[in-house]
Amino acid sequence: MNLTVAKTIRPAMRCVIGLATIFAPMVVAAMEHPDAARNRPAPMVRRLLDGIAARPQQPVRQELVWSGTDVDGDGAADFANPTGGMPRGHDEFGEGQFGARRDGGARSHEGVDYVAVAGQGVRAPISGYVTKIGLAYAGSPDLQFVEITNPALGYVARAFYVSPEVKVGEVVRLGEAIGRVESLQRHYPGITDHVHLEVLQPGGERVNAARLIVTKLVARA
Ligand SMILES: [Zn+2]
Fold first, then answer.
1. Of 118, 150, 196, 197, whose CB is crowded by the most CB atoms within 10 A?
2. How far is ligand 1, taken at its centre, from the CA of residue 109, in Å?
């Protein structure tokens, strides 16, 4: 054996001995606990897994938002929830959805009641201009409605039980403040305060606003 070969072998041998020193205890452990060795991940893998598990998970928040239908196809909503509340459920005065029974079935509810807190702001359910401010019931000057007409879409919306902060002829944009919610407790003690919204489609027929203003889940970072 000449000097060059000896020099080449010696580092290789050192490497083999080094590897044997590292792996021998693992081999012995595996022989002593064959099942454990098979089922448990290697220490380094385990440390990696622990690291991944310990990393805080980025929470995906989902939020329920109101979304208005885009009837003219311009990519923007054409309707908005006037109070941000849910349609009124059942209370002793009935239910708030479109078509609900009124007067023992003699008539049906012609709007959708959006739950509100008396005094809160009311948002314009459609863009347009204010075409009428009137009384919900003759002889009850405190319960008024605001009518908004959108000539381009041909839709009309009436928001009832609103103290108006707009005037007839005024232009309002979708979602803009039009007034405050009036309490219904003097007229219907115990009722869920709400804004009654009527939507009239082109031609004047009343339609279910709940089909035009829907909820959708959106992810928030
Ligand atoms: Zn109603």
1. 197
2. 6
